[in-house]
């Protein structure tokens, strides 16, 4: 983190006072900070994550057979902060039942949804929102899904779908959080 001054929103709760004499009192003031983090000034944006493509076997096979390698499907994204960063993820279709996984934390978000070609869908992990064209798509999130964040350090992030012909991708954005208060 660069700089030497930061702003943190805090409000003070009702002070507790004990009047011990007309001129002496002990008191306690409690500060409440809804978000105790200081966020890095620079927004981090991932490279495009595309579903894996290629790979598999040619039929008929010749023995011994060698599989072609698949391409894409995952990236490593580093959170330089000291705390878990909750990203905003933008999916752009065509994506058929996309699954976004943070392999570092073991968490995944699955959508029972087909995102049309070129259409964006926004997933806000912090506020637990899934929005397309201003309308909530929260019902597309499967019960087995988790809202997840990026642990401090490198995170292996993957995107898979149910169709090998999907051409869409995911972008993640976040500001690294540091413990502030």
* N-C termini distance: 15 Å
- Characterize the overall form: elongated
Secondary-structure element string: EEEEEEEEEEEEEEEEEEEE
Which fold name is given in CATH as the topology of the domain at 39-53 and 70-179? Jelly Rolls
Strand content: 35-45%
Q: Which sheet architecture does the biggest sheet show?
A: 6 strands, antiparallel
Q: What is the strand arrangement across the widest sheet?
A: 6-19-10-15-16-17
Helix/strand-derived category reads mainly beta
Which stretches of 5+ consecutive residues score pLDDT under 50?
A: 66-71
Top CATH class of the domain at 39-53 and 70-179: Mainly Beta
DSSP, total strands: 20
Helix content: under 10%
What does the average pLDDT come to? 86
Question: Rounded to an integer, what's the Rg over CA atoms?
Answer: 23 Å
CATH architecture tag of the domain at 39-53 and 70-179: Sandwich
Distinct helical segment count: 0
What does this molecule look like?
- The chain is mainly β.
- The protein has a domain at 39-53 and 70-179: Jelly Rolls, CATH 2.60.120.860.
- The protein contains no helices and 20 strands.
- The two termini are 15 Å apart.
């Amino acid at each position: 983190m660069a700089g030497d001054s930061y702003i943190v929103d805090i409000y003070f709760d009702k002070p507790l006072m004990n009047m011990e004499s007309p001129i002496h009192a002990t008191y306690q003031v409690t500060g409440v900070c809804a978000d105790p983090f200081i966020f890095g000034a620079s927004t981090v944006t991932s490279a495009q994550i595309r579903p894996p493509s290629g790979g598999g076997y040619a039929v008929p096979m010749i023995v011994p057979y060698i599989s072609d390698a698949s391409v894409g499907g995952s990236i490593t994204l580093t959170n330089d902060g000291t705390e878990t960063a909750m990203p905003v993820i933008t999916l752009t279709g065509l994506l058929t039942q996309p699954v976004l996984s943070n392999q570092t934390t073991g968490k995944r978000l699955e959508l029972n949804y087909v995102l049309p070609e070129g259409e964006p869908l926004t997933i806000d992990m912090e506020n637990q929102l899934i929005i397309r064209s201003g309308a909530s798509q929260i019902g597309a999130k499967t019960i087995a899904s988790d809202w997840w964040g990026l642990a401090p350090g490198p995170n292996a992030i993957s995107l898979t779908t149910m169709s090998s012909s999907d051409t869409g991708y995911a972008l993640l954005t976040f500001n690294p959080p540091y413990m502030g208060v």
